[in-house]
Amino acid sequence: MDKSTYETRMKSFVGQKIVKVIYHDIANEEDGSPLYQYFDEPFHCLAWGVDLFMSNGECLTLTWGKQFGMCYSLDICATPMSQRSQVDPKTLFNQTKIPEWSNIVGIPVTDIHVLWDVKGDTISIQPEDVPRILKYPFKIIPNPTKKKENYPLDIRITFENEQMIIIGAYEYMGSEINAFYPATDGVTLFFDRATAKKYKIWDLPNKI
């Protein structure tokens, strides 16, 4: 997939309504609940991704992957995860009616903005990095030996009622550091601007 195709696919959902939400996450061994509920935080960290079924019958399926050659971009899947035979049904969770989606489901999408980052940059965590991460977790150190190409890091979906959700390839680093790291093998959903600002997601530059 290239940048133009990705953008076009995203824009095709403008005007549609989300009617069903399926999370693909690890099931808690004790009670079978999705593991994202382990974090008592105003965001959802999913192991694999999400299916957003639309009012026109299509589905926007988002996961982490390598469609742009980057470990990892926010990828679009052709087939919903909930409709794949190889996916364990125990890892699929219908979350349409939970509070976080109550003011989003059934509301027309007015815009989908893609945040593009640059692959070829070095992303690594070392003990000496922790003070920098706490200050600004997404300051990436350039690596001039690699080719610079754009990849999608997150999408920002705006609805007719001015609500917004951000879905990105981010991983929560735990309560000790209390920050997110980008371009990782996980998908995180933020349901309000205040939370996105708190974790400096909102302020990330768009490197188109």
Task: Report what the structure shows.
With 208 residues, this protein is mainly beta. The protein has four helices and twelve strands. The longest helix is centred in the N-terminal third of the chain and has 9 residues, at 3-11.
Structural class label:
mainly beta
User: Rounded to an integer, what's the Rg over CA atoms?
Assistant: 17 Å
Q: What is the strand tally?
A: 12
Strand order of the largest sheet: 5-4-3-1-6
Biggest sheet, open or closed, and with what strands and sense? 5 strands, antiparallel
General form = globular
Helix count, DSSP H or I runs of 4 or more residues? 4
**What is the H/E string?**
HEEEEEEHEHEEEEEH
Produce a short descriptive summary.
With 208 residues, this protein is mainly β. It has helices spanning 3-11, 99-102, 130-135, 193-198, and strands spanning 18-24, 43-46, 49-54, 59-65, 73-77, 92-94, 109-119, 149-159, 164-168, 170-172, 180-182, 187-190.
List keywords for this structure.
33% strand; mainly beta; 12 strands; 5-stranded antiparallel β-sheet; single chain; 208 residues; 4 helices
